[in-house]
From TrEMBL:
SMART domains: Cyt-b5. It is an enzyme of class 1 (oxidoreductase). Residues 19-98 form the Cytochrome b5 heme-binding domain. One of its GO terms (molecular function) is molybdenum ion binding. This is Sulfite oxidase. It comes from the Eukaryota. The keyword Oxidoreductase applies. Belongs to the cytochrome b5 family. The keyword Transferase does not apply. One of its GO terms (biological process) is sulfur compound metabolic process.
Length: 484
């Protein structure tokens, strides 16, 4: 039943003592018309079942929030933030959700994944334990800054529970602990903010897997996000330790996340990147202006802009300045790429360097594969993202729908306009109104990006295939149907 009230008397989403309080598990079940479609806004729970088909933006977007929060969507579609919309939503109010309701009520103490954070239901899950998920492609390019709740999640182990009051970060040089920093000690360093994309090394792996079987999670194009990160610069912390860069080769990072043997997730970067203030490596404690959430590294994670996501270690426990690269599995026997002729019978991981800076890449987010697109004035609208590692600026995105006979240059609509040369850490959003042939019933769209070093994406996956499915940056191809 929908409660009709005088919505003007309260603020939308405030706790209401006259209504029932639900838990997240119960709300999550209401994600379809049969059981009812419920959504959350702040502390309010709303039954929008009868409204879905009347939604001016169509039912598809609002259904992404079914059984979960609509707040990340309203952060993108800011036209909802009006008193009129708040009153409309409040008229559909049925209850509350407790602020403290951040984990499911039923917890299996023997399951290391029993106290995981609740994730937004719009995320497509590629792995449950450890949790790995990505947002729908159509949402990726709606906002230059990816809403935190819709940022892809790539965990390698259970999410640790950390009390910020007892949190400490150990700083080790060689084999000697030089210092331990509490959370407040880290915050005493100059506050520094960057806007940077992070991309999983396996982004777009599902496409490479079509070329030949490989091992790894079946990521689509959504294992990437662009966020505002705030924290202390690593170079400032290392300089406090009076380190001579010439005496060391690597900076290792260890997390508080542990495998069953008690071994932490670990990765490393070259010492020159850690010591160079121009590299903008930071120990981030804020994401998009808020305390960094558990899934993304609470209370502190390393952000190494322009580098594969695997080196951006979450839940930071130790920083180790050493001559040795991290000996962890994720540095030595994973996140490396090989020749297409290398298979699991002849692979030698010691022969390949660990992936650091990422290659140039792009993806088409709209339209999505097999979607039917209405042709307007002989054209269809195509949107996507492009990015290159190492701080290299995207200078061009080329799009074709005639197998490369004719290339059209896309408009670069959004990038970090304050970035300095060599520090383009953010992605670039692009779009184009692409001409299509009259009466053509379907077409295949290709996209390729070019960066400031004139690196360009390879044409196909055939010659860059590798057994772990990393660096999947061939032309992105999307087949769609056309409605004239």
């Amino acid at each position: 039943m929908v409660h009709i009230i005088n919505a003007k008397s309260i603020s939308c989403g405030e706790f209401r003592a006259d209504l029932k309080t639900y838990n997240l598990e119960e709300i999550n079940k209401h994600d379809n018309k049969k059981d009812g479609i419920w959504v959350i806004f702040k502390q309010g729970v709303y039954d929008i079942t009868d409204f879905v088909d009347k939604h001016p933006g169509g039912p598809s977007k609002i259904l992404m929030a079914a059984g979960s929060s609509i707040e990340p969507f309203w952060a993108i579609f800011a036209n909802h933030n009006t008193q009129e919309i708040y009153e409309l939503l409040e008229s559909m109010r049925i209850g509350n959700i407790s602020k403290e309701n951040v984990v499911f009520n039923t917890i299996n103490e023997n399951d290391p994944y029993s106290k995981e954070p609740i994730r937004h239901k719009a995320l497509k899950i590629n792995g449950q334990k450890p949790f790995c998920a990505e947002p729908p492609p159509s949402l990726l390019i709606e906002s230059f800054i990816t809403p935190t709740e819709l940022f892809y999640v790539r965990n390698h182990l259970p999410v640790p529970e950390i009390d910020i009051k007892t949190y400490s970060l150990e700083l080790i040089v060689g084999e000697v602990t030089r210092k331990e920093l509490k959370f407040e000690d880290i915050k005493k360093y100059p506050k520094y903010t960057i806007t940077s994309a992070i991309m999983c090394g396996g982004n777009r792996r599902s496409e490479m897997a079509k070329e030949k079987q490989l091992r790894g999670l079946s990521w689509g194009i959504g294992a990437v996000g662009n966020a505002i990160w705030t924290g202390a610069r690593l170079c400032d912390i290392l300089k406090d330790l009076k380190i001579n860069e010439d005496d060391y080769n690597h900076v290792q990072f260890e997390g508080y996340d542990l495998d069953p043997s008690g071994t932490p997730y670990s990765a490393s970067i070259p010492i020159h990147k850690g010591m160079d203030c121009r590299a903008d490596v930071i120990l981030a404690y804020e994401m998009n202006g808020q305390i960094i959430p558990r899934d993304h590294g609470f209370p502190v994670r390393v952000i190494v802009p322009g580098v594969v996501g695997a080196r951006n270690v979450k839940w930071l426990a130790k920083i180790i300045v050493t001559k040795e690269e991290s000996q962890s599995q994720w540095q030595q026997r994973d996140y490396k790429a090989f020749s297409p002729s290398t298979d699991w019978d002849n692979v030698d991981f010691s022969t390949a360097p660990a992936i650091q800076e990422m290659p140039v890449i792009s993806a088409i987010c709209k339209p999505e594969p097999s979607e039917t697109i209405k042709v307007i004035n002989g054209k269809i609208n195509v949107k996507g993202y492009a990015w290159s590692g190492g701080g290299r600026k995207i200078i061009r995105v080329d799009v074709t729908n005639d197998q490369g006979k004719t290339w059209h240059t896309a408009n670069l609509n959004a990038e970090d306009y304050n970035a300095k040369e060599g520090k383009y850490w953010s992605w670039t959003l692009w779009s184009i109104d692409l001409p299509v042939k009259k009466d053509c019933k379907e077409t295949e769209i290709w996209a390729k990006a070019v960066d400031a070093s004139y690196n360009v994406q390879p044409e196909s996956f055939r010659n860059i295939w590798n057994l772990r499915g990393f660096l999947c940056n061939a032309y992105h191809r999307v087949k769609v149907k056309l409605e004239h």
